[in-house]
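Weekly structure sync, notes
Attendees: PL (lead), two postdocs, one rotation student
Agenda item 3: pending single-chain targets
PL asked that the sequence for the first pending target be pasted directly into the notes so everyone works from the same version. It is reproduced below exactly as submitted, 59 residues in total.
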Amino acid sequence: MDDTALDYLQNTFGYADFRLQQREIINTLINADDALVLMPTGGGKSLCYQIPSLVRAGT
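Predicted structure, written out during the meeting:
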């Protein structure tokens, strides 16, 4: 995983580490692949989309 994603998680959002499959989902999206994320409310879906948009240039 790109360390930039972890930097954004820690410095922008204030979390120490990713939850469950967030790391895999975020890495998939950073690599411009598709992902369908089904998680319960409060499961961390928003970060799965917010962090890749910060990491990827031009998004």
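Discussion points:
- Residues 45-55 form the longest helix (11 residues).
- Residues 6 and 17 are 7 Å apart (CA to CA).
Action: rotation student to compare against the earlier draft before next sync.
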